[in-house]
Write a structure and sequence with these properties.
It is a single chain. The radius of gyration is 13 Å and the shape is globular. By secondary structure, it is α+β, with helices and mostly antiparallel strands. The protein has helices at 16-29, 60-63, 69-80, and strands spanning 4-9, 36-41, 48-52, 55-59. It is built from three helices and four strands, in the order βαβββαα. The protein has a four-stranded mixed sheet. The chain has a single domain (4-90), classed as Glutaredoxin, CATH 3.40.30. The termini are far apart. This is SelT/SelW/SelH family protein.
């Protein structure tokens, strides 16, 4: 079965649109590799975490910032499709 990405976000902080944008970016890039992207409202204030299945790939509190789309695509790619080229998202 293909992996599912979960984006857990704080609805009280107004981060749903940010999570939805990232979900769109991931679904566009990994349309053949992912089962789907789940947007999950968090009960924890300030939460913004991204998981592939149950593996945490990004945590806003740990990193002290939000992920860039390019960075998140690379992190998800490294877990779900390590050989996949991301075009311009692979360049620094």
């Amino acid at each position: 079965m293909k992996p599912t990405v979960t984006i857990e976000y704080c609805p009280r902080c107004g981060w749903m649109l940010r999570a939805a944008y990232m979900a769109q970016e991931l679904l566009t890039t990994f349309q053949d590799e992912l089962h789907g992207v789940l947007l999950q409202p968090s009960e924890t204030a300030g939460c913004y975490q991204v998981r592939v299945n149950h593996h945490l790939v990004f945590d806003r509190k740990t990193m002290g910032r939000f992920p860039e789309a390019k960075e998140l695509k690379q992190l998800v790619r490294d877990t779900v499709a390590p050989g996949k080229a991301l075009g311009h998202s692979d360049h620094k």
